[in-house]
Specification:
InterPro entries: CheY-like_superfamily, Sig_transdc_resp-reg_receiver, ST_Response_Regulator
Strand content: 15-25%
Strand order of the largest sheet: 2-1-3-4-5
Largest sheet: 5 strands, parallel
Keywords: Phosphoprotein
Distance between the termini: 21 Å
Number of helices: 6
CATH class: Alpha Beta
Structural class: alpha/beta
Number of domains: 1
CATH topology: Rossmann fold
CATH superfamily: Response regulator
Number of strands: 11
Protein name: Response regulator
Pfam families: Response_reg
Shape: globular
CATH architecture: 3-Layer(aba) Sandwich
Length: about 180
């Protein structure tokens, strides 16, 4: 796939992580990349530019990923509220992943990030656009109901779209792809 026409905003307060993500995205052929070192900077950038995809850290200061995604998904933030968001985080507890899903994240990628895992998340996000619904004043992705019925326990399971989920803890399948 040609990534040159996809505009991507990377939001992370860790300069090393930004450099790593930039290198990977550039290697994928991306030519429309902007970087923000805080959620506040990302919001400023988006006043004049709307990315096709946002890749953000979950744990940042002073505004974290939770607050950032919540603002992004606000019904008052139209049309940016529908921008796909991939979270990259070192914190992989199931409760954190479910929290990210509930606030409106499309994908959750656990650090350390490999080029292959990032590429797969981006491709999956592009190839499987979500429907959104309004919940408590913000838009959240509607997950495939067939995925809701899966129980995964420390094994790889292929969904109907042949994408592999890999989860260490037993959880209900919920449409988020885990690393």
């Amino acid at each position: 796939m040609n990534f040159s026409n996809i505009s991507i905003l990377v939001v992370d307060d860790n300069e090393n992580m930004v450099t790593l993500l930039q290198a990977m995205l550039t290697a994928f052929g991306n030519e429309q990349l902007k970087v923000a070192y805080s959620a506040q900077d990302a919001l400023k950038i988006m006043k004049n530019w709307t990315p096709d995809l946002i890749i953000t850290d979950w744990r940042m200061k002073p505004m974290g990923g939770y607050e950032f995604v919540k603002l992004m998904r606000s019904e008052n933030n139209f049309p940016e509220c529908f921008t796909p968001i991939i979270v990259v985080s070192a914190y992989s507890e199931i409760t954190r992943v479910k929290e990210a899903q509930a606030v409106g994240v499309n994908q959750f990628l656990v650090k350390p990030v490999s080029p292959e895992s990032l590429y797969k998340r981006i491709m999956w996000t592009i190839q499987h656009p979500f429907q959104y619904r309004l919940v408590d004043g913000r838009y959240v992705p509607v997950f495939d109901s067939s995925a809701q019925n899966k129980t995964l326990s420390g094994r790889k399971v292929k969904d109907e779209d042949s994408f592999v989920w890999d989860i260490d803890d037993e959880v209900e399948g919920d449409g988020i792809i885990y690393n």
